[in-house]
Amino acid sequence: GVATIDSHHPLRMSRDATLQQVADRVAFVEAFGNVTAIDTEEGLVLVDAAGPLHAQSVHHSIRTWSPRRLHTAVFTHGHVDHIYAVGQFEAEEGAPPARVIAHEAVPDRLRRYEATNGYNAVINQRQFQLGQPIFPGGYRYPDETYRDHLDVTVGGVELHLRHDRG
Asked: pLDDT of 70-82, one tens digit each?
C-alpha cells in the first residue's frame, strides 16, 4: 500500500532494464518481458526478448555485458512482451539475422495479433488505464518451430526446449 501505481504499473514503470549476472556467462534482464541471456563462443542466446517498451534498454544492458552477436533467440510463447529486443540486435551494423526458435503455435498467435490489433489496443487501454488505445505491431516471426521438443546446441551450450502448457 505504500508504492504508487506508477512505480509498478507495467506500462508506466521505468523503461530501464536491470541486468544481473546469475552464473558464469549467464545473465537475467528484468524488464516487462524478462530475458535470460547466455554468452556462448558462437554468440548470444536469448530466452525471450522483452516487449517493445523495454527492447532498447534490454539491448543496451546486454551490450554492456557482452559484445557478441545475437546468434539464437527462443520465444517461450507468443505474447508480444517476449519478442522485441531481437530487432535491436538485428539492426546493428553488419549483424546477420538471428535464428529465432519458438513453439509451432507462435506464428498463429502473431498472425492473430495482426488481425485483431485494434481490438487488442482497446483492451490494453482499458486494462492498463491508458489515455489512448495502444498495441504494437511489426512482429519478429520465428525461423524455426517445434511441436513437442527440440534440442539445440549453440557455442557448446546445449538447450533442451520442451513444450508444455503454462
From this structure: 999 999 999 999 9
